[in-house]
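Hi P.,

Sorry for the delay on this. The queue was packed all week, but I finally got your sequence through. Input first:
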Amino acid sequence: MKAHFTNNHKKSWIVLTFIVLFSLSLSACQTVAAEFPTETSQTVQDQTQPTEAEADQSIATAASESTSIPTAEPLAQTVPPNRDPDDWKDWPVFPVQVSEELKELYFWGIENGNNPHAFSILGDCHSLPEVFLGIYDSDPEAVQNLDESLQETVQQFAGSFDRYSPTVVVGTTEGALLWAQWNENKEGYCLPNELPIDCEIRYHRPSIAFIRVGTHWEARNEDYLRTIIEKLMANGTVPVIVTKPDNRELDERVNHNLAKLAVEYDLPLWNFWASIQGLPNGGLSADSDMYLSDDSYAVQQVDGLIVLDFIYRSLNE
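Then the structure:
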C-alpha cells in the first residue's frame, strides 16, 4: 500500500479544505485562540507541570501496577534506508509502511480487549477536536465530500473523532501524560489518581494512537516518550508518531528525538512539520512561534484522516 494521494483524495482534499477553512474562520480557531495562554500565563502553566521526581514516581507506580502486561521493547526489524533520524526533515509526509510486528501487536491488542473502532490522540491545543479531527463526527457534509475509502474509515472510527479525552489538553507535555494531577477527569470515568494515559487506555481501549506532543517541550522529553510508547505497545495499541510544527527549543531536538524513537521502535511517522513548510511562516500564525495558522489547521484535519486511513488499512492487509 503506497502512502500518496489518489486523484479522488486530491479532489476530497480541495473540497474539504474549503469547508474546513470556512468553519475555522467562523468560530473554531477564534474560540481556541482565546483560551491559549499568554507568555505570562504559559510560565505559570509550565510551573504546574510535574517535577522530575513526581513524574518518576508516577512512572514507577504505573510499572508496579502493570506487571501482568508484557513489556514492550524496540522492534528488531530492518529500517528502510531513508529513515535516518538526522534527515528527518526529508522524510515523507505520510508513513510508507507498517511492520509485520505492529500488525501482530494490533491483533493481539484486539484479542485482549482493544476496540478496533477506537483510536486515541495524545496531544495539546493542536489536537483539540475543534481544530483537529472532530469535524468527521460533527459535520456530515464534510464527510460526504470525502473519497469513498476515507468515508469508510470515518465510519470505522465514528465516535473517536469528536470526544473528550484526558490526554488532549491545552499545554500537555510528555511528562503531563504521566502525571495524575494533570488528569482533569471532566467526565468522571477516570479512577482516583489515574494517569491521563492510563485512563485513556483503560476506558477508550484504542487500537491506534497518535502521539502529538512536544510543543511544550521539557528536558526529559525522550525518557517520557519512551514510557508513553511502551505503555501503548504493552496495551497492544499501535503508536503513530507525529512531528511538531514549531522549533521553540531552537535546536529541533524534539522532532529529531521523535524520528529517532520512530526508527528505534519501528513505528509509523506522520511528518506534519514537512507538510506545512510551504505555507507562510512555516505554517505558524504570523505573530506566534507555536500556534498554527488557519491553513495549517486545514492541512492537519485532512492529512490526519489520510494517515489514520493508511494505518488502519495497512494493519488489516
